[in-house]
Amino acid sequence: MAPSSRLRGRWSLPALVVLVALVGAVVVWTRGDDDPPPVSTRDAVIDVPESPGSDRTIQLDTTLYLPERTPAPAVLLPHGFGGSKDSVSAQATELAQRGFVVLAYSARGFGRSTGSIELNSVDHEVRDAQKLLDWLATREEVRTDAAGDPRVGVTGGSYGGALALSLAGVDPRVDTIAPVITFNDLGQALLPNSARTDAVDTTSPAVGAFGEDGVFKRSWAGIFFSAGLSGGDLASPGQEAAEPGQDDNDAGQAADAAAAAVTAPQQQGRPAGPVNGACGRFAADVCAAYTEVATTGKAGPKTLEILRRSSPAAVADKITQPTMLVQGEQDTLFGLDQADANARQIAANGAKVKVVWYSGGHDGGSPGPELRGQIADWMAFHLDGKGTDPGTGFEYTVVGAFRSSGAPSLRNVIAPSYPGLAGGSPVERRTVPLTGRDQTVVNPAGGNPAAVSSLPGLGSALSRSSSLTARLSIDLPGQAAVFASEPFTSQVLLTGASTVKLRVSAVPGTPVPADGAVLFAKLYDADANGVRTLPGSAVAPFRVRDLPADGTPVEVTVTLPGAVRPVESDHRLQLVVSTTDQAYANATEPAAYRISLASPELSVPVVPGANATSEVPTGALWGIAIVLLVCLVVAVVAWFRRRLTADVDPELTSVPLVISGLTKSYPGGLTAVRDLSFRVEHGQVLGLLGPNGAGKTTTLRMLMGLITPTEGEIRVFGHRVHPGAPVLSRIGSFVEGSGFLPHLSGIANLKLYWAATGRPVEQAHFDEALEIAGLGGAVHRKVRTYSQGMRQRLAIAQAMLGLPDLLVLDEPTNGLDPPQIHQMREVLRRYAAAGRTVLVSSHLLAEVEQTCSHVVVMHKGTLVAAGPVEEIATGGGEASFRVDRPEEAADVLRGLSGVRSVSVDGEQVHASLNGTPRAEALQALVTAGVAVDQAGPRRRLEDAFLELVGE
Amino acid sequence: MTENGVHTDPAAISDLTDAAEHEHAQVAPDGSKVGYRAGRTLPVRVELARQLRRRRTQLVLGFLVLLPFILVVAFELGQASPNRRSGGFVDLATASGVNFVILTLFVSGSFLLPMIVALFFGDTIASEASWSSLKYLLAAPIPRHRLLRRKAVASGLLSVFALVLLPLVALGVGVVWYGAGEAVSPTGEAASFGSGVYGLALAVCYISIHLFWLAGLALYLSVSTDAPLGAVGGAVLVSIVSQILDQITALEDLRDYLPTHYALAWADLLSSDVDWSQMARGTFSALAYGAFFTLLAARKFARKDVTS
Questions:
Q1: Residue B230 in contact with partner chain A when CB distance is under 8 A
Q2: A709 and A606 both lie in a single domain
Q3: Closest by Cβ to A634, choosing from B41, B85, B295
Q4: The CATH number of the domain where A896 resides is what?
């Protein structure tokens, strides 16, 4: 024990340091923040022709991100509308860290690039991008397929995504694309018409009717346009969307940080472009087109042409590259129907198409790290052949209920393929019966007040509460027709755009607007309490032209907005058709329409799939298992070690106590007991005598197994004492004060103590022990009311419970009054006489002298004397007499035979009697007429003791 | 002699010595008296009796019974819109009996429940040391590992009893005042009374497991000091510091390592589609911390010199 305890003291600080370092290492390691590979950048200004065939050039501001190892495949990274090359720097760095050469650039009219915005025109922006491909092919860092043909993929969000699609359609050098939250047809995105009078092909999940002559999406178009004017990136989602399996708090943190990082350079870059009057940096024709739509709410043929040439739809039939389409479920600008159209058009060319719907969008946030990683994986496989084939599946994210962390729960569902693509099976559609009478809805003059469904532009600011904004929607009474389903009996996971057939007619006698009826359909999820949620905050605007004034109904098929929504059991789906919506250009002429269901059913798309994110948190479960296992192992090891502690010396089984070489030293250098050895034989009352601090109590504590000796051992009936040694059950002890539960009575204390030993009640001898304590009726009082003496007696009684073979009492008479002390001596003597052994410690000499048969004298932790009390006390049989005439008495004593060395000391006469009985010497003195005041052994124990301890 | 006749009848000494003479020690091979078995020492029921008779334990349990009534009175005094169906935990408290229990757990989860667990575990050894009764238990002898285990089990039972008692009383009070209606979650989801109660039962299980970290810490402090207040206060203090640090969002995912980070993960049980990931992480975190501190406590206690 000794070396280890010394070691413990010396090594505890370094051990603590090591422990802290280990914990720190684990924290750092589990956080997994490996240093990302370094990325270097080169800025370059690249000249491109202003327009096809033009001599004039404009300058594109570019940054090339170079990975650690080159040559490498390249990724072209166009930015979103209103952004610049700086707004994609984070993603560019990420991709470069994945090993791609990344070219980020400010599109014409944005950032520091010159030129004017032509809205991804095939003749302008797309040609610029082709020039960038030419430039990439000349770079030695870029791997090439052939001379002038770089190995290159294109990815980008929104405006940049559309460029990726158009570029892929125009330029076969592009090897793969991953457009994010982008459009198929800008005309349908800004002027959607979600209803057709002819049939709608509903084989794909998020089909949009894409009818002509749509309703102007006023709010979004305005935001879009002003983003081009000012350079503010309002049109792009500022934050990242939450992802499944992500700690939601952290997602928020990361997104906030990312948003802050993205906005800062934009604000610096904003004044770069010249502001050119009301048109800003827009090309004149684009500006004119916007002005027309914004003022009239309708698009003329010229505008339609501009929108067409800006749309990937124009070249989609030529896209054959593997395409990963990422679209947001929270997107009222470019909804799921846009990605659906892209997917169908590209798949029709035989190209590989993978579709991912994630929880963000223009209203919900940009792709999070996991989805960006997925895009990088796509690029790695299709450009570099690295990694596993991402395949052509279909993934969507289901937003569930809120979690304790304050964000909604998310899960990804994976289906083997996007339904309804060329060669694939159509989407499964469930028929949900709807009920509702014919209802009349009124279009207010001026289109005001209008229903509220979404908050375009603000949506990204509110993205983290997008599930809450889904509840902000307001329908105005009189303007909305409501049709509802029965409560669902089981959950249905709505995945895509539902369709419904409606019958619309003018109310006879009211004027029919020349532009037809403008209506908005939306599909709510209403719970049992009537709380409604509008999935994705999206509405499906539609225009019914040529409405007969006589009330003849027109039947239309309406494609509702694409959404992913688990409709729980007991919830209903509620179809609302209203005449107004704040986000759109409403009809301004007052009108009234009758709305009814042409067929009383809603066709709800369902795409079954497997959950991608396993619901089982395996890491944590493994952790739990490991912790439990470690505990089990520790318990088993400890159990075995305890088995090995038994140590018995068969020769000593009848000796109550043998202490040999006992030493206890403390780390501070204090040695309380040093090399103490003594024996206590059967039937003895042994007194352990020493002044305060002699080490008596420490010795007794070691005897009880409370303190571990530094060296040496204690054997009780041959068994070595260690903490909890079973042989301690043969010892009854009272050491350094009583220990009772103050809130319990004396008797309850004793009973509970005995119950705690686990021994049979009949062994306790409560009655005898309580009689010894002699507390009478006080045993039923709470111990906290006891006097010191009463506690003392109760504690001695407790020590005597079970009639121990060795009774150990530390200062038993402290606090007792003289009669009680007398009785206590009697008890101890007779108890020993009854065949037990008693060990009493005391600093009072008289105490030991009167009680004990044997004594061990200790001083400063060492043994100074041991033996029978008489032997120690009387030494050589010397006696002293206190007399009135000392000289005379000395003479008398000298005259007795055998008496030697008589000396006079004041009134005292000392003599060595050498076997002559003291009574005889006394009688001789009395006979000689000497008055004897006192007679006794010369050296009382006190003297012996003082001599022994050298004081 | 002194009052109550505190004295030893001389006959008592004879009785004792007679008994001592007639009873001859029978000794088992391991050196113990026959009748003593280490595996029978300190039965849990004895430890529970020792603890349950303490005024402290009775007051704590009594307060837990009282708390729901205090909350009801508070709501009755300040009730503006009874039976609301939306809003936060507090707004929803009066929607149904189950909601009332949720509120009770929510308001007591950050301080009261940790404090009770810290009290039962932090006090258990330290108070014995402060009464000096620890040495007599150890010398009885109750093996140290067994004493620690039994005391921890008794404290655990008391803690679980307290953790069950509070929601149970709250449920009774809530049903009487606010009815056995549907439980409404802050997101507007409604669950039937039965499934709400089932979710609450699981929540109580989770809270019990999650507070294991604090139990381990309090136990460690309890064997480290002879001052019960120090052990209990120390454990509560660590819990509070952890909660404060958890508020500092700048720490980001470092906060996952805080033992209180997953304290409210049981709220996930209230939704219809339960996400177990936070609770699994919370369970792991609590078990890891709890096991660490408990093993540390066991190691310390096994080697400690008992000097109180």
A1: no
A2: no
A3: B295
A4: 3.30.70.100
